[in-house]
Q: What sequence folds into this?
């Protein structure tokens, strides 16, 4: 595509890094987390700012960055140091580390999400207040939420709210409201998250990008499912399905896993055959199963398991789904959704 042509022709590190960021965002739109991580790491290498390849060294680097950068964070919220091309480079680097953390979130590795947030801190004093600063606070808040750390989350969320208000940017405010609902769910307060996401998705649908809208729809449906409100949960997913079917830009992320919620919700409503159809239609192909897309694979299997439970069809297929799910080696305490 267009990005591949740019990579083939360009020798400008900044342009190649921006292209890598675009590729990663497309791949994460499909929840292809492994390829999304690869693309953003390639972009960071173009800038000479990639994290150390050795995991232990990378953690030492991240912790060192955190300790050095924390004292300057208050100043960074007021003004930045960099200008001109340096400012462009540091803003891009911040966006790349935010994208890396986001990709790790959907790769079911919240510890690496936290590491990416810490590594990004070295650029905050350079970029100062702005959209990149907001995105970093949202990323760090996501790390705190995924790791169930309430106090750090509360502090980061308060900062993000103030930054979004200062920007006076409707898209920035919309993203803050979306992430607030998502992270509230991560912290376990699904009733509050249900209210926050329900209000947000109704009011700011047109301001969210498709990936965020579908992610919010999935999270809201899950909150409703947990309290047995299956009809309302199905309405949320059905609305997303209709928007996708209508085409336009919302059709650009058709690999999103929000569809997997259809099976268990319809099973709970007694519409077993419809639910089974959704499960079968969304069964991953062998190539997808082998690919590095842990989120979609885990979502497909876990919702298939839940469908069989809700439709009282626990048998060989259920057992096979459980076996495959266990093979993923996921830690339930570290699963975001």
A:
């Amino acid at each position: 595509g267009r990005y591949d042509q740019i990579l083939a022709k360009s020798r400008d590190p900044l342009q190649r890094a921006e292209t890598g960021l675009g590729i990663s965002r497309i791949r994460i739109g499909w929840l292809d987390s492994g390829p999304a991580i690869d693309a953003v790491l390639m972009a960071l290498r173009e800038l000479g700012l990639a994290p150390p390849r050795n995991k232990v060294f990378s953690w030492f680097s991240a912790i060192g960055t955190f300790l050095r950068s924390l004292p300057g964070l208050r100043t960074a919220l007021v003004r930045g140091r960099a200008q001109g091309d340096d400012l462009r480079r540091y803003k891009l680097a911040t966006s790349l580390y935010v994208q890396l953390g986001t990709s790790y979130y959907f790769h079911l590795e919240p510890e690496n999400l936290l590491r990416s947030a810490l590594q990004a801190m070295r650029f905050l004093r350079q970029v100062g207040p702005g959209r990149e600063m907001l995105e970093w606070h949202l990323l760090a808040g996501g790390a705190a939420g995924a790791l169930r750390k309430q106090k750090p989350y509360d502090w980061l969320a308060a900062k993000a709210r103030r930054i979004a208000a200062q920007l006076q940017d409707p898209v920035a405010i919309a993203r803050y409201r979306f992430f607030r609902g998502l992270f509230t769910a991560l912290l376990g307060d699904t009733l509050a998250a249900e209210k926050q996401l329900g209000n947000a998705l109704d009011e700011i649908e047109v301001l969210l990008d498709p990936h965020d809208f579908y992610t919010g729809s999935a999270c809201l449906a899950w909150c409703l499912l947990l309290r047995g409100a299956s009809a309302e949960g199905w309405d949320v997913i059905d609305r997303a399905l209709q928007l996708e079917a209508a085409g336009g830009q919302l059709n650009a992320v058709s690999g999103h896993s929000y569809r997997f919620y259809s099976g268990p919700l319809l099973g709970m409503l007694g519409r077993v055959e419809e639910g089974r159809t959704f499960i079968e239609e969304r069964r991953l192909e062998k190539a997808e199963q082998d690919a590095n897309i842990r989120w979609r694979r885990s979502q497909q299997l876990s919702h298939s398991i839940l469908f069989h439970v809700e439709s009282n069809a626990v048998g060989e297929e259920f057992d096979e789904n459980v076996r495959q799910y266990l093979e993923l080696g996921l830690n339930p305490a570290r699963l975001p959704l």
Observations:
- The chain has 19 helices and no strands.
- The mean pLDDT is 86.
